[in-house]
Amino acid sequence: MAETSLFQPDLDFIRRLKDTGGDSLKRCYQCATCSVMCKLSPVEKPFPRKEMLWANWGLKDKLVGDPDVWLCHQCNDCSLNCPRGAKPGDVLAAVRSYVYENYTFPSFMGRALANPKAQFWLWLAPVLILFIILMAIHNWNFDFLNDAEVEYKHFFPHIYLETLFIGGNLLIFIFAAIGLVRFWKSLNHPAVQGGSPKFLPSLISTIIEVLSHKRFADCVQNKPRYIAHLLVFYGFIGAMITAGLAALLTTVLSGVLHFESSGLPYLLKYPIDLPHPVKILGVLSGLAIFIGGLLLIISRLKGREEVGADSYVDWLFLNVLFLTALTGLLTYVTRLIGIPILAYATYFVHLVLVFFLLWYAPYSKFAHMFYRTLAIIWAKGVKRGEPRGER
Ligand code: SF4
Ligand code: SF4
């Protein structure tokens, strides 16, 4: 007698996918054109046809532990070739949002970042925190606003800045790690194919692949996204290196070790200003994020089919990223113009945006970077199969 399986569809999960960009999923009639079109899909157990079937049946447990959902890079080659307009690229994106929203710690933050109604409170928190710190630093005395020269370190001293953003982010990345461990365990669930991955060799190979953006380059229809993503990615890495070096020079060397700038080699001198290499790196990184973010926004505003569904989480992340880069560049410009009130107001807005971007990173679309990297490590480790595009 044939073996029978009992499936318990999760109707709330189906509704959730439909509400977050996967509204076309019921159109799928399982022709498998999408799996044939996807260059990132391996020959063995290809995606996204099987994911469309699981999504239609509301098989949440299978989808949240499915690494293939993360091997998809949302190029939408599948969606543009689906004879039924079922848009598997959008459905997989909706599953990814669901995953990092639900694995995050604390989980209410994951839900808040996915809920437009919570946005007011999410913005209010950094505004209040930064405002209170400013008031405590200056004791309601803002005489420095009358100075002819704009000095951001007088407005918000480096030591407070580093504590808030470097110290605070160490905490937030511990929270992020909890979500990632939960995700990793789900990948090793018996319901998912494969064995135990060899972590280190897979990690090295994945890092090389991420740095080259090789999988994005395999996209056919949405090729412009490759350039934009590359700019944002390297811009962000450059900005992080800039922040680290600036903290080292201005806080550690000057504030903690009390080294005199005049006695240091040129590369270690502070304050950091053009043409100091750290400043140049910061400006170039800001420009890369600004241009990459602008390209991504323009392609979405044009409503091109290749881009896929306009979900709230996508727009929120994109806007915050773009505005962070824009205000970062404006802080430099307004300082050169020399209008203190304008410069400090721009700097305050920039800090609010940086807070939003970094403190909420484990709960926003930002997190996809970490989840996708882990899924690729896992796939390489268990020899899940090469993407078809590599053959
Ligand atoms: S999503 Fe479209 S292309 Fe893929 S199996 Fe369903 S109907 Fe076919
Ligand atoms: S969006 Fe692109 S990468 Fe993702 S399943 Fe479709 S074709 Fe493959």
Structure description:
The chain is mostly helical. The chain has two domains: 11-103, Fumarate Reductase Iron-sulfur Protein, Chain B, domain 2 (Orthogonal Bundle), CATH 1.10.1060; 107-390, no CATH class. Helix content is 64%, strand content 0%. The protein contains 18 helices and no strands. Helix 7 runs antiparallel to helix 8 and helix 14 (224-256) packs antiparallel against helix 15 (277-301). The chain is elongated, with a radius of gyration of 23 Å. The two termini are 41 Å apart. The relative contact order is 0.15. The structure holds iron/sulfur cluster (2 copies). One iron/sulfur cluster binds next to helix 2 and helix 3.
Tell me the β content: under 5%
Listed once per kind, the bound small molecules are:
iron/sulfur cluster
Write down the Rg.
Answer: 23 Å
Low-pLDDT stretches are none
State the end-to-end distance. 41 Å
Principal-axis shape equals: elongated
The run of helices and strands is HHHHHHHHHHHHHHHHHH
The biggest beta sheet, please?
A: none
